[in-house]
Amino acid sequence: MDGPWLRRLPWALLAGALCLACARSPLPAPPRPVLASVDIIAVGHGDSILVTSAAGKHLLIDGGEAEAAPAILAVLRARSACPLDLILLTHPHSDHVGGLSRVAEACGARQYMDSGYHHESRIYAHLLEILERRGIPLLQAEAGRQIDLGAGAVLTLLGPPRPFLEDGPEGANASSVVSRLSVGKASVLFAGDANAPEEAWLLGRGFSLRSTVLKVGHHGSRTSSTAPFLAAVAPRLAVISNWPDAPKHPHPETLERLRAANAQVLETGREGTIHLELDAETVTWATANHPQHQEVRLP
Ligand SMILES: [Zn+2]
Questions:
Q1: Domain of 14, in residue numbers
Q2: How remote is the CA of residue 190 from the centroid of ligand 1, in Å?
């Protein structure tokens, strides 16, 4: 098994051998085991995120545009993630649902879940056809539902709002399945493309939003990441899924609000795929362009 939490195992064995060789010499404490990892996959325009727990559970949040499927499948295969335990679609816009049909066919999944927001599109309808053909059960996301990923990792659904907040072009975004992964003191909030009205709804629900890492809503657009929402989340690290030279993604005003909230900002458009590792105390991150792991400062 080549799960990321085993990356530190050789160092633990080496530390043990050194300890036998010089029993009286104090050694630094061995690294804590990684309990969950998160890959924010560089898919160009869109979102696709793989969550892997030390218990061997694999959850895919969104699937980018259709052209992103090969990049997503490469990560899934590298993590031995097929078949997925769950595909979670935050909302049915093409930059989130586009690659899922091919992923569901090539990788397989035990379950599929989405917001239930009604959306007429050929891409979304095709995904539902594939799921039915493969016998993959459809579940509807409900705020408050908890998904146990094992090894102490729990994904709590915080949305979508019920009833849905908006109809029209912004309705799907405002109905995003927002979720929060927690492992001990470490946590990651996945905001989908939630906009200001959904953020206000979340603030009014009394959920625990505070998170070590925020997957920034709607690719850093100006109409997401309001100051009150960022104050509640208080992220140390803000990850934006975008694409190189994306106009207004992130928007300068969003970047300013993130900086004012003291969040370090990483963008997939600049860094490539971003990899997080969570243990009970800390989060570390590395990227395709900066592979050396760095620790997120916890308050
Ligand atoms: Zn999007």
A1: 1-31
A2: 12
41 Cα to the center of ligand 1, angstroms: 14
- What residues pack around ion ligand 1 (CB closer than 5 A)? 95, 193
- Is 131 a residue whose pLDDT tops 90? yes
45/20 same-domain check = no
CA of 47 to the centre of ligand 1 (A): 6
- Residue pair 258/265 in contact (Cβ under 8 Å)? The answer is yes
Same domain, 21 and 151: no
Distance CA 258, CA 265 (A): 8
Same-domain check for residues 23 and 149: no
| pLDDT mean across residues, the chain | 91
- How many angstroms does the Cα of residue 2 sit away from the middle of ligand 1? 31
| pLDDT at residue 297 in the model | 67
Residue 194 has pLDDT above 60, yes or no: yes
How many domains does the chain fold into? 2
Q: Give mean pLDDT, residues 264-275.
A: 97
Q: What is the pTM of this model?
A: 0.90
Read off the pLDDT of residues 27-46 as tens digits, 9 standing for 90 and up: 777 778 999 999 999 999 99
Query: Do 204 and 250 sit in the same domain of this protein?
Result: yes
* Nearest to 96, CA basis, from 75, 65, 125, 120: 65
**Segment 204-252, tens digit of pLDDT:** 999 999 999 999 999 999 999 999 999 999 999 999 999 887 778 899 9
